[in-house]
Amino acid sequence: MAAAQVAGSLLCGRPREPPREPPREPTPEQDNGFWRLSARLCALRPDDSSSARTEIHLLFDQLISENYSEGSGVSPEDVSALLVQACRLVPLNQNHLVSKVSQLIHHLLNRLQVIVDEQNLDFLLAYTISAIQQCSSWTHMEILQALAALVYCNGSKCQKYLPDLLGKTGLLMKLSDLAQSDPEVRRAAVHCMANLCLSVPGQPYLEEPYQNICFQAFLTTLQSPKSSDMDDITFCMLLQNALKGIQSLLNGGKMKLTQTDKLGALLAVLKKSMFHGLPGLNIEMPTVLYPTPLPQYDGRPLVKPQQSESSASQPTSNKKKKSRVKPKKIQQEDEEEKVSSGEIEAAPVTGTGRVNMHEGNTCCSSSLGVQSLPLDGSGPAGKDRVSLSFSSSSWKRVSSSESDYSDAEGSMQSKMRSYQAKVRQGALACFLSTIKSIEKKVLYGYWSAFVPDTPELGSPQSVSLMTLTLKDPSPKTRACALQVLSAILEGSKQFLSVAEDTSDHRRAFTPFSVMIASSIRELHRCLLLALVAESSSQTLTQIIKCLANLVSNAPYNRLKLSLLTKVWNHIKPYIRHKDVNVRVSSLTLLGAIVSTHAPLPEVQLLLQQPCSSGLSNSSSTTPHLSTPDLWKKAPAGPSVEEASVSSPKGSSEPCWLIRLCISTVVLPKEDSCSGSDAGCAAGSTYEPSPMRLEAFSNLPNDKQILCITVLLGLNDSKNRLVKAATSRALGVYVLFPCLRQDVIFVADTANAILMSLQDKSLNVRAKAAWSLGNLTDTLIVNMETPDPSFQEEFSGLLLLKMLRSAIEASKDKDKVKSNAVRALGNLLHFLQPSHIEKPRFAEIIEEAIQALISTVLTEAAMKVRWNACYAMGNVFKNPALPLGTAPWTSQAYSALTSVVTSCKNFKVRIRSAAALSIPGKREQYGSVDQYAQIWNALITALQKSEDTTDFLEFKYCASLRTQICQALIHLLSLASASDLPCIRGTVELNGDMVRSYILQFLKSGAEGDDTGGPHSPQERDQMVKVAVKHISSVHALAGDTSRKAIVGFLEDTLTVYFDSSGSQVADLELKNR
């Protein structure tokens, strides 16, 4: 034990301490109190006399009570040196002094936000661990608090002490065990473990065995019920610490939840903790949640009859009035709301930092208003809301004169509710980290456990994330629940695409498609219900963002009409909301609606409505508006509303939404923001959405120039949200046919995008990389036009600059990398012989191809590897590149053959096989050995085309075999005499297998394949005929019978195909030939 080795020296007063540096002279700005007390402490020497102990006690008390202001000039090194000296003065047999020095460590490190350096940490850790081992149990609480402060963000530097702390008989394992008699000590031990798991970017993570030990300890803590000797607040803090620990493991430690039982156990405790302390709700959860498309059970117990009666007897009209008007004398409610909204306490830890929702003052009516505003007249859901209304609002909205408890009791109740809300927020934050650490296809197996479904008639609604959104009294918790729901909905388009409810046909069972459609309808209903009832601007923003994610992914072409109309009518008033973030999210939602399955007739009708349509639908809950008609202040011409109302249906005048977006962007800064939003940039109220080509083309020429000028100007904005949105909009504009052939516009856009690629914000870089990919797509489209003027006029220096930026971006995060490699492939395809001949391009081309090869082989996200394979195929399309003779040729082919045989994702395999079939000349495949390697790899890939443990990949098996067969036939049509022996060997060994798959290729084609291969039967059998003709024409080497064997194999395959298809004429033609 590392700590045991220093225990003896600590008792003897000769601790193994770091070398002491002479104290530095404080600058005038530094804190005089700290330096004065520090100098006194450093002057002391170890002394066991009573007077010495008293002096040390007094010094510690003064150091603890000193007021340390921010920027006091006290450096981390000074604090660490003082703590080492303090520990040196305190022998471990002095329990009171050990307790006091532990308090000092905890106080100074937290108050001054100090992370101890490694040298001093080693000494202080040894001291605290030995103190726990040797001191009385009543000191353990303070020592553990000191230990937690020491290991905070220092987990990677504590490696040699981990056996003492987390081993089988480790201190933290024993003290955090369920058998621990002191609940406060147990909580403090779990807190230490959570801080150990917190990692810092750039430093090593906690080793995997210790990660698993901590994860299991946290999970056990969350699964265990509250013991009888533990008070409620301590229990809440215990749960918070366990949740933070798991979150740190998932975020910083990159822990992978691959085992179903492990993930299911975590999701079960998270769901239970999400509702911890929610008034009127107490759910029982199984130990493990298993993935299933249907709910396992209804986990919510029925509400007691007495409670329902109490709820029914409560005078709702008075209660409603009180919720709308907040008397000044009720200060308790104000404080309570601040606590619940997060103004007093910081947000839960996510990753290595803290998330702050910036919750503002909110009315107390939010949760009550939800229960009194049914949207669709859903009976069971309405009944469910009423049954909980009394319990969720009786303590929230009662005045001090009506309270049944004293002021002290009220303060304790408020504190309790604050801690319970933090547990719910911690569980939601941990759930968000869990979502990010698992694949979406795994997550959607638990869809029904967290996303609501329309309840059956007479049955209560199951608890879900929407339960929190509608009924939690804390706006911060509601916002957290909406963030989690948004994360679930993001990228769910493929999962939701199966939904269908356009038919009313009754079945004996509920199909999966109908269940998903029902879930989508219920999400719409609940989110719109939350929208009209919410009073917190921050939570309102999250509701609208969640709606935008839902709208972007839901298959409205397969659902009944009116869902989008309801969203449209409810959101229009919020375009003029006083809060800039609400206005931004409202415009984003409108952009999502108009982009949905275009051209959707329902959306076309909505766009033809006058802008005043729908405003009256939400009159009962009119949102807070900014200056009236502010957004109508267009720079010239009639107002937006007048224009939209007066314009005939067939007019070329753009609709009100386009005019609104333009007017929003060009409004002066002081007009576009009001109140607290005055510091926002002018463009921050709008994220430009992809305007349809027709809409842009219909704009007058001066308006088109205005849009382009505004976008290029906004690209220099200091606001990163504006910059990201501008980069994305430029990426859309550069695809417009009316703009993409304008060399000057494309060059200006390229320079703007390249500047954004250097931004510190990942979001800006990701949007810029996407736009760079689009811009390079435009280069390829222009290259295919008959007019060569674009290629000739496009700057070679700019191409060089784009290549360098794309290479750097390919080393970035996956969000940036996926589009960076796409851009690299397009740029290498676009290069002209005049570029390639220049020496300055040679090195950059080599770097670019090496970046693509590295990305193909890396263990990155599958989207990144797919794009890298696609890019490599684009490189092969450029005949000017020295493919086949360049040194990188073998590396490129080796990377693709490795992927086609072993990648677990079949779509990536398909794309790599497609890339291998692109070179059009035999020389481009390199040497005979290189050709043989590619051929054998494709045969191996064909044999392994059904080898997968993931059932979701099976649907791509046919497409993979089709693409591999196409690549093999392509290779046959280019083969040289030297290649024939290798091909013959394959025919002899695996002829039956290859023939069966080629027959499937000829019969079925490439259904669902997007690689551009032949789709008609005539095209497919023509490929084989061309291969037969080519092999027949090859001059075989003397004595080599390979040509005859291969031709015979192919002719036999065609004969079988024609016999089975009944095409006797083609068969006879083949035989006669």
From TrEMBL:
InterPro entries per the UniProt record, alphabetical: ARM-like (IPR011989), ARM-type_fold (IPR016024), DUF4042 (IPR025283), HEAT6 (IPR052107)
Biased composition (Polar residues): 305-317
Start and end residues of each stretch annotated as Disordered: 1-32, 296-358, 617-652
Keywords: Phosphoprotein, Repeat
Biased composition annotated in UniProt, kind: Basic and acidic residues: 14-27
Basic residues bias (residue ranges): 318-329
DUF4042 domain span: 422-603
Highest taxon, organism lineage: Eukaryota
Pfam families: DUF4042 (PF13251)
Protein name (Swiss-Prot/TrEMBL): HEAT repeat-containing protein 6
